[in-house]
Design goal:
The protein is α/β, with parallel strands linked by helices. The protein has two domains: 230 residues, D-Maltodextrin-Binding Protein, domain 2 (3-Layer(aba) Sandwich); 90 residues, Periplasmic binding protein-like II (D-Maltodextrin-Binding Protein, domain 2, 3-Layer(aba) Sandwich), CATH 3.40.190.10. The chain is 42% helix and 16% strand. It contains 15 helices and eleven strands. Strands 1, 2, 3, 4, 5 and 11 form a six-stranded mixed β-sheet that branches. Strands 8-7-9-6-10 form a five-stranded mixed β-sheet, sandwiched between helices. Helix 8 crosses helix 12. It is globular, with a radius of gyration of 20 Å. The two termini are 34 Å apart. It comes from Bifidobacterium aquikefiri.
Length: 340
């Protein structure tokens, strides 16, 4: 789940460190290892099934095949992950792509080089089995559980209500992880959840998926999670950047060519999660095309993401100098990877 509003003070502080040269932003922590491989550090916000392309690339040896030895760190949040890049302790980060335009708003030079999650992977589940896909008015007069503002479930649901002119839809805030229990306790009719909670809802709680944001053509593709670095790094480490993106491209293709094997990798990465839940969550994400089929972040996916970010006033507008596709996405590495 994402918390999109970023502390302006902490972010600007990180950006100032980057601009001033503290932490050697863009010089990278890439180094040669004893094996002859180049060590590249990726800092992921959290460990999640949403980042399956990363784990597939590791498990299948795609990074090593490209001459890269990956050191994987976990920041604990999107802000911490990208701050590791700005501070020089990581070469790449994986989190919400909004950190790139936020960096430009603070004078930084963030850039996105690969997709990691390519759809707004949130689902509306409830006790009723009646789909609302073609009848969103059915939500009027209902209570919907979302995480507190400005989390992604709150943002998506608020935008859905506004765009469809829905009346008297009450959003009930609960802390992340307690959404399903709140519905079971009768606090609301529906809950907005991501995987694997969407699978837990249908498999363990007897709830039903009634609306899928990834399945709605008006929402997908959507730059939901991305591989982010700085322009300074890509310019000084073109070989390493291309190698890492090549590995992600191979992983994305593998997930769709070998879904059963992708499930197995997910299960091995999350041994404490019920294997059937992992299988359902990964399969569901593949069916919804939540994982990118290719590494490229398209202009359409970027526009959809920035539409929501602008709506919740997390950035300075849609298609501004700071939020434009040209400023934030370097598609050259992904395009080259797809051709290779």
């Amino acid at each position: 789940m994402k918390n999109w509003k970023i502390s302006t003070v902490s972010f600007i502080a990180a950006a100032v460190l980057a601009v001033s040269g503290c932490g050697a932003t863009g010089s990278g922590s890439s180094s040669s290892s004893e094996s002859g491989l180049t060590t590249v550090t990726i800092n992921q916000a959290v460990k999640t099934l949403s980042y399956l392309p990363l784990y597939v690339a590791q498990d299948k040896g795609y990074f090593k095949a490209e001459g890269i030895d990956i050191k994987l760190d976990t920041g604990g949040s999107g802000s911490a992950a990208f701050s590791a890049v700005l501070g020089g302790s990581a070469d790449f980060s994986i989190q919400d792509p909004v950190f790139s335009p936020k960096s430009h708003m603070s004078g930084g030079d963030g850039v996105i080089v690969s997709a990691v999650m390519n759809a707004p992977a949130e689902y509306l589940v409830g006790k009723s089995s009646t789909s609302v896909v073609n009848n969103l008015k059915a939500l009027e007069g209902k209570k919907v559980i979302v995480s507190p503002e400005p989390d992604s479930t709150w943002a998506f649901m608020t935008y859905l209500i506004k765009e469809n002119n829905l009346k008297n839809v009450q959003l009930v805030n609960v802390s992340i992880g307690n959404e399903l229990a709140a519905v079971a306790a009768g606090q609301a009719d529906y809950a907005m959840v991501a995987e694997p909670n969407a699978s837990k809802a249908t498999m363990e709680q007897g709830l039903h998926e009634v609306y899928s944001f990834p399945e709605d053509s008006g929402w997908s593709p959507y730059a939901f999670s991305s591989l982010t670095t700085t322009k300074k790094y890509t310019q000084s480490h073109k070989k390493e950047t291309q190698a890492v993106v090549n590995a992600f491209e191979k992983a994305c293709q593998y997930i769709y060519a070998h879904p059963a094997e992708a499930v197995s990798i997910g299960q091995s990465e999350f041994p404490d999660m019920d294997a059937s839940i992992v299988k359902h969550a990964v399969t569901h994400s593949i069916e919804m095309k939540s994982y990118p089929e290719h590494a490229l972040v398209s202009e359409a996916s970027w526009k959809n993401a920035m539409t929501i970010q602008a709506f919740i006033k997390n950035v300075d507008g849609l298609n501004t100098k700071n939020t434009s596709y040209a400023t934030n996405v370097d598609p050259s590495f992904a395009k080259a990877a797809e051709k290779s």
